[in-house]
Amino acid sequence: MIELSGLTKTYNRGQVKAVDALDLSVRAGEVFGFLGPNGAGKTTTIKMMVGLLRPDRGSIRMAGYDLAGSPLEVKRRLSYVPDNPDIYQRLTGIEYLNFLADVYRVKAEERQERIPHLLELFALTRVVADPIKSYSHGMRHKIVLVGALLHDPMIFIMDEPMVGLDPRSAHHFKEILRDRCAHGRAVFFSTHILEVAEKLCDRIGIIHKGKLIALGTMDELRDQARDKESLEQIFLELTET
Amino acid sequence: MTTRAVWTTSLKAHFGLSLAWYYVRRRDIRCLAFVGIAVAVAAGVAPMVYLYQRLLNAAYDLTLPLGQTPVVLTMSMVAAAAAVLFLGFAYVMSVFYFSTDLPMLIALPLAPWQVLSGKFVVVLVAGYLTMAPLVLPGLLVYGIRSGAGGLYWLQAFAVYLVTPVIPVSLAAMAVMVLMRAANVARHKDAVRLIGMIVLTLAISVFAMLPARIGPPGREAEFVARLLLPGDGLIVQAGRAFPPAVWATRALTAPAVAVRLGWLLALAGGALGMTAIAFALGQRLFYGGLIGGEEVRAGRGLTDSQLAMRVRRVRGPVWAIALRDLRLLTREPMSLLNSVAMIPLLPVLMALPLLAIGDAAQPGLQDLLLGSPTVSRLAGAGYVAAMALMAPASSSAFSREGRLFWVSRTIPVDPKVQVQAKLAQAYLIMLLTLPVLAILGFGVAGWPVTDFLLVAAAGMAASLPLIGLSLLLDIMRPYLTWQNPVAAIKENLNVLLAMALGGGLMAGQGVAVMRLLGAGMDLAAALLTVSAASLLAGAAILAVLLRTAAGRYQRVEI
Lengths: 241, 557
Prior knowledge:
The complex is a heterodimer.
Chain A: E1 2-11, E2 16-26, E3 31-35, H1 42-49, E4 57-62, E5 65-66, H2 71-76, E6 78-81, H3 93-103, H4 108-121, H5 137-149, E7 155-159, H6 167-182, E8 186-190, H7 194-200, E9 203-208, E10 211-216, H8 218-224, H9 231-238
Parallel strand pairs in A: 3-8, 3-9, 6-7, 7-8
Antiparallel strand pairs in A: 1-2, 1-4, 4-5, 9-10
Helix pairs in contact in A: 3-5
Chain B: H1 2-15, H2 17-25, H3 31-63, H4 71-97, H5 102-107, H6 112-145, H7 150-162, H8 165-184, H9 188-207, H10 219-227, H11 232-237, H12 242-252, H13 256-293, H14 303-309, H15 316-329, H16 332-356, H17 361-370, H18 372-389, H19 404-409, H20 414-429, H21 432-444, H22 448-475, H23 486-489, H24 492-517, H25 522-554
Helix pairs in contact in B: 1-6, 3-4, 3-6, 3-24, 4-6, 4-8, 4-9, 4-12, 6-7, 6-8, 6-13, 7-12, 7-13, 8-9, 8-13, 9-16, 12-13, 15-20, 17-18, 18-21, 18-22, 18-24, 20-22, 21-22, 22-24, 22-25, 24-25
């Protein structure tokens, strides 16, 4: 579902390699956790995957389409949740959702079914007619998540999606992701919350200084880092230098 | 020490000094962008400054026989004060109340006046930059032509530093009172907008006070008094801003002690106004600030209301245009600059007619309304000028700011997104029609066909202007602003669009005049130029659509 091949991005005229020849694939039905310390290249990778940054080298294929060649085909099939949920402050929640539904061409009957359900699930029904400016950080995050789920994308790409979510919303969100993956969707997300990655992800990739230094299931990662039980210990050992 | 830290940090953050220095140290090519902006702004104002200094030189020649040459200084000071005050309202509001650093500053152990002083310094420095093309020519023309000595230039420097303090203080006080009043109002944004319109109208009346030619029936006596040796002209020119007279005397009084006395008076006045502004700020600033952050909570939606609200499906063009329009009209300062300006500008332009006095009005009415050609050309010109003056198009992409990522990730072709921006611009332009109807039907008595012709000609003439504005903005969108007002007020694209579009519009005007001069009737001339404008507009749009596809991919935030 997602194929990154030789993906490279440099800054400062090639002096800083933010992402260095990254090869990675995520299968349909898989939840993939992308881990790494601050400045490791997680957000740069994600921004390249959603078309916000242009790779210096390498290719990105998603849902069978090459991002560079068919960007609109790719964008129709994915949802992106940024790490910063500061979305249009002067729109109301419902105006924001209707805007996304319009540009993703969600049919009227699907909107009428999905929007009330998702708003209820994330406890936003009461505030959906209010300006987003009046929302708390967590509520803004939730309205962005609802927007990302509206068009039932084939691929979810999320940068730190759990930050700011209350436990109930985080639980519902994980349930939705699991359910979507059971229906053949793919999830790619970065996180600092190692416990979430450990429990939710089918596979985990650890990026450090732009290079993928570990990749596999939890069991495979344990094998790579001998005598280490928790993901935290594995992470600390691998990203020590 | 603490206050100085607030000042330096505010200046560095607002004017991007740290970022510029970072680029210079790293020898990053982006440091040239700062130089480029400075050069472009200088190039943009150079023609105006050239004409302005010619005007001042002419004023110097005219007043030389009367011994009133210092009026050159008074004129330039009044013009500078009016400009600082006029731009100051919007600037003060954006810097004082809508900066993104405020939540951080409020949380620091600083008194309100200290936070306020950081903001005040930023607006003051902006005032120095704003008034430079207005005051420096005055100081130079007078200083050079009168052969002024070294002390003049030293005092001129002091006067320059003091001059904007009073208008900035006045603007700060007016805005703080307005924001505090808006805080207790139910519809805060509406109060802010109406307040800004009232302030803008008030400053326009203030700026044209010197234009009134004395009491009715005694104009000759009044003019004679002005022309007598002494400083009658100076006092009259400084009526709108008396500190300009003090500044003039501080630079031109015969005795050094008197000059220093006036300089002290000027500095004392500035200090007094600043003290009042800060005393007021200590009481009002945080109150208005908290109001700026507050949002009225709604009542929520019932199930049936929610079902109704999600039922309507729109195409992407309308969805994006609607999003942009909502964001534009819900930001009071953007609404004022880009939308309210359309009906407001004709009112501002009509005010001088009232100010000049009854004697001058019939002549002007005859000129504007007595000739069918002039009134119709003015009508079409007004519609086209609004495409240029209201910066909705020249900031269409920039206003998206850091949220431009949304436009880059949604599955909508950039060409379609450009069409949405064009639709948005023309929807705003529809606001010109009621004004045109008032002018055409209410004042000039046009038949319906003439109204339609003028409206169509204006809209056609707007196409290349809007296309050019959009093209300039997508070429180099300003997306890293810290408050939404900056997307317009600090956006070079807006200035460039006005400069280049102004040239284009002048070309349209010349073309109409040439056709009329060649014997073509007005309708045929307007239709011919409209057709040419549509062709030019189509060509610009073709370039715009091709450019947009690339820019949407390449712009990195």
